[in-house]
Write a structure and sequence with these properties.
The chain has helices spanning about 5-10, 35-55, 60-80, 120-130, 170-200, 215-220, 225-230, 245-270, 285-290, 320-325, 335-345; strands spanning about 20-25, 85-95, 95-105, 110-115, 130-135, 140-150, 150-160, 205-210, 280, 295-300, 310, 315-320, 330-335, 350-355, 365-370. By secondary structure, the chain is α+β, with helices and mostly antiparallel strands. The protein has 3 domains: about 5-130, Translation, Eukaryotic Peptide Chain Release Factor Subunit 1, Chain A (2-Layer Sandwich), CATH 3.30.960.10; about 130-260, eRF1 domain 2 (Nucleotidyltransferase, domain 5), CATH 3.30.420.60; about 275-370, Ribosomal protein L30/S12 (60s Ribosomal Protein L30, Chain: A). The strands form 4 sheets. The protein has a 4-stranded antiparallel sheet with strand order 3-2-1-4, with helices on one face. A 4-stranded mixed sheet has the order 7-6-5-8. Helix 2 (about 35-55) packs antiparallel against helix 3 (about 60-80), helix 5 (about 170-200) crosses helix 6 and helix 9 (about 285-290) packs parallel to helix 11 (about 335-345).
C-alpha cells in the first residue's frame, strides 16, 4: 500500500476480527544492515516479542499470533526484495499477511499485537511525505524528476526539435532566428503542460526549477498560477546529465523545509490559542474530551508517549474506569490511550503531527487544535 491519508484510514477502519492483528515495522537500510541476515536477525528479535505478547491471550488468539509471526518471517525472507527499500511494515492476522508497506527511508523497529493494525509509524511517515518535483530546462531539452519518501525517479525526458544557430547573416538569419525562438517557446509550453498533468495526477507540494537562468526564468513565467505558487526558491544551476541519485539530498532538503514550515505554522496557531478551550486542547485529559467529541482538527503527539486507560461501550476513551463508565458500560481497559487517540483522530479525518520530545508541546504528551 501507499503511505497516504486514505490508505492509512482504510487500515485503521479494518473490522475487528476474532483474533488480533500483528504489526511489524523493520528497518532494512543497506547502510546499516549490508547483508539480509543483519536485518533478519532484528526481525527474529521482534517476532520473539510478538510471541511473548501473544502468551497472555486466550488459546485461539495466542495460536493466531504465533502463526502471524511465522507468516511475517516467511514473507520477509522469501517474498521481500530489498532494492532501494529502507523500511517495511508487515501486517498479519490469522496467520496471513494481508498488507505491506515498503518505503525508501528507514523506520524504527517496532512490533505490536492489537485489535487493529498499529499505524502510528505510518503517520510519522505521512508527516514527512511530500511530492517534490524538479525540472531541468534548456532551450531544446528538459528532464523532470519526482521525489517522495526518499525515492527519486525520473518522470520524463523531453527533447524538442529546436534548430541550431544560423551561420549566415542578413534577412535569412533574422527569419531563421525568429523561427528558433518560436520553437523554443513551443518547447517551454510542452514542458509546462507536462508539469500541469503531473500536478493533476498528484499534487506537487514544491517545484524546483533548474537550468540556464534565461530558460529557467522563462519557464517560471509560463507556469500555471497554481504551480507558480509552489515554486521553491529561485532557479538553480544543475547540469542536464545529472542522475536521480545525485538529486536525492537536494530534494530531501526541500522536503525538510516544507515539514519545518508546516510545523512552525501549526505550532504558532497552537500558541495563539493558549487559554481558549474552544480552539485548542493541551494534555491528555482535555485531548480525550476533544477526541470523544470528534472535534480534533490537528493532533500533536510526542512519539513514544503512552498511558493506560479505558474504553466505554460507546467507544469513548477515558483515563479512569469511573469516567469511562459514565459514557456507557461495560468498560474495557486500554493498554495505550495515546495510540487509541491517534486512531480515533485518523478516523475523524484529523491531521497528525508527531514530535520526538515534549519541548514544543510545553511538556504535554499530546495537544490539539480543534475544529469548532
Amino acid at each position: 500500500m501507499d503511505v497516504t491519508t486514505g490508505e492509512i484510514r482504510k487500515l485503521v477502519d479494518r473490522p475487528v476480527g476474532e483474533v488480533p492483528v500483528t504489526s511489524v515495522y523493520l528497518n532494512t537500510d543497506g547502510a546499516r544492515f549490508p547483508k539480509a541476515g543483519d536485518y533478519e536477525a532484528r526481525l527474529d528479535g521482534l517476532l520473539r516479542d510478538v510471541r511473548k505478547q501473544g502468551d497472555g491471550l486466550k488459546p485461539a488468539a495466542r495460536d493466531a499470533v504465533a502463526a502471524d509471526a511465522d507468516a511475517i518471517s516467511r514473507w520477509v525472507r522469501n517474498d521481500f526484495r530489498r532494492g532501494d527499500v529502507r523500511g517495511i511494515a508487515v501486517f498479519a492476522a490469522a496467520g496471513e499477511v494481508f498488507e505491506t508497506v515498503q518505503v525508501a527511508i528507514g523506520v524504527r523497529n517496532i512490533a505490536r499485537v492489537s485489535d487493529r493494525p498499529y499505524v502510528v509509524p505510518l503517520e510519522a511517515l505521512l508527516g514527512r511525505s511530500h511530492h517534490v518535483s524538479l525540472v531541468i530546462v534548456e532551450r531544446d531539452k528538459a528532464r523532470i524528476f519526482r521525489y517522495q519518501l526518499g525515492r527519486v525517479e525520473e518522470h520524463l525526458r523531453i527533447a524538442s526539435d529546436v534548430h541550431g544557430q544560423h551561420k549566415q547573416g542578413g534577412w535569412s538569419q533574422r527569419s531563421f532566428e525568429q523561427g528558433i525562438e518560436h520553437e523554443v517557446l513551443h518547447h517551454m509550453k510542452d514542458v509546462v503542460e507536462v508539469l500541469r498533468l503531473l500536478h493533476a495526477e498528484q499534487r506537487i507540494d514544491a517545484l524546483v526549477v533548474a537550468g540556464p537562468q534565461a530558460e529557467a526564468k522563462e519557464l517560471v513565467k509560463q507556469l500555471h498560477p497554481y504551480l507558480q505558487e509552489v515554486v521553491h526558491g529561485d532557479p538553480i544551476s544543475i547540469p542536464l546529465h545529472v542522475t536521480a541519485d545525485d538529486l536525492r539530498e537536494r530534494m530531501q532538503v526541500v522536503e525538510q523545509s516544507l515539514v519545518s514550515t508546516r510545523r512552525s505554522g501549526l505550532l504558532q496557531r497552537l500558541a495563539a490559542a493558549q487559554g481558549q478551550a474552544e480552539k485548542a486542547a493541551r494534555g491528555l485529559r482535555h485531548v480525550l474530551e476533544a477526541v470523544n467529541g470528534k472535534r480534533v482538527e490537528v493532533l500533536f503527539v510526542v512519539e513514544g508517549a503512552g498511558s493506560p486507560g479505558y474504553r466505554a461501550s460507546s467507544g469513548a476513551l477515558a483515563l479512569h474506569e469511573g469516567e469511562a463508565a459514565a459514557y456507557g458500560e461495560p468498560v474495557e481497559p486500554v493498554e495505550d490511550l495515546i495510540d487509541e487517540v491517534i486512531e480515533e483522530a485518523v478516523r475523524s479525518g484529523a491531521h497528525i503531527e508527531l514530535f520526538r520530545d515534549e519541548v514544543r508541546l510545553d511538556g504535554h504528551p499530546v495537544a490539539a487544535l480543534l475544529r469548532f
